[in-house]
Structures are given as C-alpha cells and as structure tokens.
Amino acid sequence: MEDFFKINGTDLTVFLPAELDHHNAEKIKQGSDRLIQNNNIRRIIFDFRRTSFMDSSGIGMIMGRYKNIRFMGGVVAAVHVNDRILRILTLSGIYKVIDIYEGLPEQSQMF
Amino acid sequence: MEQTNEMMIEFDSRSCNESFARVAVAAFMTQLNPTLEEVADVKTALSEAVTNAIVHGYENEIRKVTVTCSIAGQVLTLNVSDSGVGIADIAKAMEPLFTTKPDTERSGMGFAFMEAFMDDVQVESAVGKGTSVTMKKRIGRIAGEYHD
Ligand SMILES: Nc1ncnc2c1ncn2[C@@H]1O[C@H](COP(=O)(O)OP(=O)(O)OP(=O)(O)O)[C@@H](O)[C@H]1O
Ligand SMILES: [Mg+2]
Q1: B22 and A53 in contact by Cβ < 8 A?
Q2: Per the structure, how many domains does chain B have?
Q3: Residue B36 lies in a domain
Q4: Domain that holds residue B114
Q5: What is the CATH number of the domain that holds B110?
C-alpha cells in the first residue's frame, strides 16, 4: 500500500494502480485521507502512469479528494494521463476542476 | 447462418470479483476480433453494472451477481443481474449525476458511462426483487462492413 504514495513538502503524489475500479478506489481513499490530514497537504497529484483502466468509482474517488482539499485552499492535478483516461475524465466533467497533464506538469502542456 | 456463442458466470458480490468479471468478458469477446478500444469500452460498461449490483443492489451484503455474455454475428450482448433492492424510478436512476449514495462518493456517472460505451442499454428492475441490465455493442474493425 505504502508504495502508492509519496510526500514532497505539501504535495502528495498518488501512484494509481493499473486498474482504478471500486475495489482499488476504496483502498486509495483510506490511505490518502490519512496522509492528507497528517501532513498538511495542499496539492494532490494523481499519477496515472501505471493506469490503463478507470471507471466511475475512480471519478468518485478523485472528486471526493478534490472536495476535501478545496476546503483548505488546495488543488488537484492528474499527470501521465493517456487517451483512455482522458476520455473518462472528460466525459465525467471532472476535467473542469482539476489540471490534467499528458506527462509531468513541468514537461508537458495541460490538456 | 450467424455464429452464436454464450457464457455465464456467477460470483459473490465482493469488490475483488469486479476485475475477475472484466477479465472473463474481455477473454470471451476476443473471438470477435475486437479493437483495444472496443475491449476497453466493454470492460468499462461491465464494471459499472457489476459495481452497481455490489454497492447498490446488495449494499455490500455478500450475495450472487450473474453475468451472461453472448455473441450473435458481430453483436455482443452483456447482461448483469442481481436479486437485490431494485430501482424504484429507472428513468431517474439513469440520469447523469443522479446518485442515491452521494455520501459514499459516488458520482452518478455509471449509467452515463454504460450508455457512452455501448450501443444500447436496457434496465429492468423491481423494488425488493432485483435489477437486470442488458447492454449491446456491435464489434467490428471495419465500420459499415456488417449489416443488421
Ligand atoms: N443494481 C442496482 N440495484 C439498485 N439500485 C441501483 C442499481 N444500479 C443502479 N442503481 C441506482 O441507480 C443510481 C445511479 O446509478 P449510477 O451507476 O449511474 O450512479 P452511482 O452508482 O450512484 O454512481 P457511480 O456509478 O458514478 O459511482 C444509483 O445511485 C442507485 O440508486
Ligand atoms: Mg454506479
């Protein structure tokens, strides 16, 4: 579980699993909320480099983290987003409230 | 004559079986020679229906979910059934962003994804009896090559 998360200052990077479904989304929820509370996190970066599958449970998980961190003035980004994941993010409307990058923010343009 | 084939799986409504159901259906549909995108579309739609059976139909109680998958010509038909709580207002349930479980971070996008990724989605449900979702998708590498 621990290798899903990396903290750097007030940034939390979440390395998402290959398949972000209901089963895995529940695990990520629990792990990340604990880290966000204990480490004064201001930015959550969802890293999709390993992820080839996501459904609405993944959208719910990201939306939930966004709602929590927004209260504290924080932001959410998605990085290493492939075409399939981008399609799901776009269809769900969540692209309006998070910053989406094809690679890393410093290397690539925002979608 | 049109080629037909059918399979059925039944499994406990545990979240770890969601990936099992996706893999089983993806493997079964390879005989249609689908594109990667078609496989991804079907896996997403199936995952939505199976997750709904688990989280809404059975509300995380452990019962049985049934997935039937059949092929007729180039058309794939999927059915996901539970004998759980059922849906009172199907039209309302299928509206994008409608959810009865906002507190558990559901986004109300499940049916919208099923409709986006499949050609046809039909829902039958009775309160206290259960829910049956039937979805169809025509699979074919060359658009227009196959006719109804
Ligand atoms: N198998 C089922 N049994 C009972 N109710 C269901 C079933 N499937 C769907 N529903 C009802 O329909 C609603 C909408 O379903 P839909 O999948 O679109 O959204 P959701 O599951 O609430 O959220 P999401 O899929 O985005 O996580 C659900 O909130 C639930 O009330
Ligand atoms: Mg759903």
Answers
A1: yes
A2: 1
A3: yes
A4: 4-138
A5: 3.30.565.10
pTM for this entry: 0.94
CA atoms within 13 A on the CB side of B10: 6
Strands (E), chain B: 4-12, 64-72, 75-82, 120-126, 130-138
- Checking if the pLDDT of B148 tops 60, the result is no
Compute chain A's Rg from CA coordinates: 13
B147 falls within a domain: no
Over the stretch B41-50, which tens digit does the pLDDT of each residue have?
A: 999 999 999 9
Asked whether residue B145 is domain-assigned, the answer is no
Give the angle subtended at the CA of B139 by the CAs of B138 and B141, to the nearest 5°: 130
What digits encode the pLDDT tens for the residues B14-64? 999 999 999 999 999 999 999 999 999 999 999 999 999 999 999 989 999
pLDDT in tens, B84-119: 999 999 999 999 999 999 888 999 999 999 999 999
Distance B103 CA to ligand 2 centre (A): 13
Mutate to test the pocket of ligand 1, among B59, B64, B99 (most ligand atoms within 8 A of CB): B99
Domains, chain A, in order of start with CATH, read: 2-100 (3.30.750.24)
